[in-house]
Write a structure and sequence with these properties.
By secondary structure, this protein is of the alpha/beta class. The longest helix is centred in the middle third of the chain and has 29 residues, at about 110-135. Strand 5, helix 5 and strand 6 (about 180-190) form a beta-alpha-beta unit. The chain has eight helices and seven strands. It has one domain: 3-Layer(aba) Sandwich (Rossmann fold). It is globular. It has helices spanning about 20-30, 45-55, 70-85, 110-135, 155-175, 200, 205-210, 220-235, and strands spanning about 10-15, 35-40, 60, 90, 140-145, 180-190, 245.
């Protein structure tokens, strides 16, 4: 029977994929048949993630990339095209948050870093990858955003601004490129058990109030987001573009 979730033959580039949600997405997509490009700042961490995929029978290529450097972003896309000849799906997952506190106290340097790494780098990635997708008949972009872009926050305001901008980036690119069969969507996770969000979940007592207002009464696991990324890259999502899929255990409805 036809399997709309099969990714056999796809070439997938995933930023920030040496750990957390990005690694989960890479492992899930490789398990569904995709050839994945593992990318983050540290080549050794990427190699470890790629080795695990290869051991499980998948195909993985490592191209280290600091998303804040345009030349490295271009090298990631160009290196993938040179090695595998195409890109079917680009997953913009890497992000930063160097500041935790009210907007009144954020430095210009920290604000600029958040906006550059979380928004501008995604635009760089998309502008480099989408033309090649369009030329071959289509493709898919998945931007890993956050429910921080849907809610106000007294301590994560700048991060939330960047994640809200990702929603609009996806909608605008989806509008620009839909006629070329390029789909662009966002995933908006709630709190997930990753190293990136460790400060928000490792203290059990501090976590209790959050769990009390979460309908599922728990935080998410990386695999619960990686599967959504894989879905958005598949034929099962071929009529979805410009969308934001929220995966937060119900926090934003409670």
């Amino acid at each position: 029977m036809h399997n709309p979730f099969d990714l056999t033959g796809q070439v997938v580039v995933i930023t920030g994929s040496s750990r957390g949600i990005g690694r989960s997405a890479a492992e899930t997509m490789a398990g569904l048949g995709a050839k994945v490009v593992i990318s983050s700042r540290k080549a050794d961490a990427c190699e470890a993630a790629a080795a695990a995929i290869r051991k499980a029978g998948g195909e993985a290529l490592v191209i280290a990339c600091n998303i804040s450097r345009k030349a490295e972003v271009e090298g990631l896309i160009d290196g993938t095209l040179k090695h595998w000849g195409k890109i079917d799906t680009l997953v913009c997952n890497a992000a930063v948050n160097p500041y935790f506190g009210p907007l009144a106290g954020i430095s210009d340097e920290a604000f600029d870093k958040i906006m550059s790494s979380n928004i501008k780098s995604n635009l760089w990635l998309c502008n480099r990858a989408i033309p090649a997708m369009a030329e071959k008949g289509g493709g898919s972009i998945v931007i890993v955003s956050s429910i921080g872009g849907l809610r106000g926050s007294a301590m994560l305001g700048a991060y939330g601004i960047s994640k809200a901008a990702d929603f609009q980036l996806a909608r605008s690119l989806a509008t620009e490129w839909g006629w070329k069969n390029v789909r662009v969507n966002c995933v908006a996770p709630g709190l997930v058990k990753t190293d990136f969000a460790r400060a928000l979940w490792e203290n059990a007592e501090a976590l209790k109030p959050r769990l009390a207002v979460t309908p599922l009464r728990r935080i998410g696991e990386p695999d619960e987001i990686g599967g959504i990324v894989a879905f958005l890259a598949s034929r099962a999502a071929s009529f979805i573009t410009g969308a934001v899929i929220v995966a937060d255990g119900g926090v934003t409805i409670a």
